[in-house]
């Protein structure tokens, strides 16, 4: 089956495949026509919410819906503004500092140093 651009159709197709039912068998159990179920799976038609759950039930499945916040803000700050602040902060640091940071000088230890 080709990849679905409609997630509803993909879920219905996966549910029918998982149940082992044919298109006609699942449609008959759900009280719809096989042509309509095929259109739902292909994404050319959209089922109502009640029809969607009725088809899942006909396939012996149920669905749980989890609500999650969309990631649009972090600590109340829009994501684009957060990025702009980070870029402004980065611009405050010189790209080529005039003075190189001092690094510790390490020397090899000899057996006598212990």
Provide a compact summary of the structure:
The protein contains five helices and two strands; from the N terminus they run H-H-H-H-E-E-H.
What structural keywords apply?
114 residues; mainly alpha; 434 Repressor (Amino-terminal Domain); 5 helices; 46% helix
The helix/strand order is HHHHEEH
Given as residue ranges, the uncertain stretches (5+ residues, pLDDT < 50) are none
Number of helices: 5
Gross CATH architecture of the domain at 7-58: Orthogonal Bundle
Which superfamily, in CATH terms, is the homologous superfamily of the domain at 7-58? lambda repressor-like DNA-binding domains
Q: What is the overall silhouette?
A: elongated
CATH topology-level fold name of the domain at 7-58: 434 Repressor (Amino-terminal Domain)
Roughly what percent helix?
40-55%
Can you characterise this structure?
With 114 residues, the chain is mostly helical. It is 46% helix and 4% strand. A two-stranded antiparallel sheet has the order 1-2. α1 crosses α3, α2 (23-30) crosses α3 and α2 (23-30) crosses α4 (49-58). The longest helix is centred in the N-terminal third of the chain and has 13 residues, at 7-19. The model has no long low-confidence stretch (mean pLDDT 83).
